[in-house]
Design brief:
Number of domains: 1
Strand order of the largest sheet: 1-2-3
Radius of gyration: 19 Å
Largest sheet: 3 strands, antiparallel
Structural class: mainly alpha
Order of helices and strands: EEHHHEHHH
Helix content: 40-55%
Number of helices: 6
Shape: elongated
Length: 133
């Protein structure tokens, strides 16, 4: 198994006997929101972190990161098989989703440009950074 990359919003999770990776990405969240009929991230996370069975099943399918050679549908079927997943897995699930979310947010924050409009225009026009004053 490939290790989870928190910079990409990934986290490792073990459900039953199967360890896999999930990633919180905007496109994954959009697919999950559509599948669950949620309107806000708060609603989405309440359902996913609350370990609502349908939300978890859809989240596994929408957020999973398959390793090379994994057949996605087969891996999802194994994870969600009644002989594998149970209510016992809710704590590991919550922990992984929270770690993946933090990674997603931190990655987004690192891509934001904190310069003012003055600094941006000076960089573009003068070709050199202007210190904030």
């Amino acid at each position: 198994m490939t290790f989870a990359n928190p910079i990409r919003g990934e986290a490792e999770v073990t459900i039953g006997a199967i360890t896999f990776r999930i990633a919180v990405t905007f496109s994954g969240l959009a697919r999950l929101s559509d599948a669950l009929g949620t309107k806000t991230l708060d609603d989405l996370y309440t359902r996913v972190l609350g370990y609502e069975p349908k939300a978890v099943a859809c989240a596994v399918r929408c957020l999973i990161v398959p390793d090379d050679g994994d057949q996605l549908s087969e891996l999802v079927a194994k994870i969600l098989d009644d002989s594998n997943i149970s209510a016992t897995d809710q704590f590991a699930w919550r922990d992984a989703v929270q770690r993946a979310l933090v990674g997603h947010i931190e990655a987004g924050n690192s891509r934001r440009d904190d310069r003012t409009a003055n600094q941006l225009s000076a960089d573009a026009v003068l070709g050199k950074p202007v210190s904030p004053s």
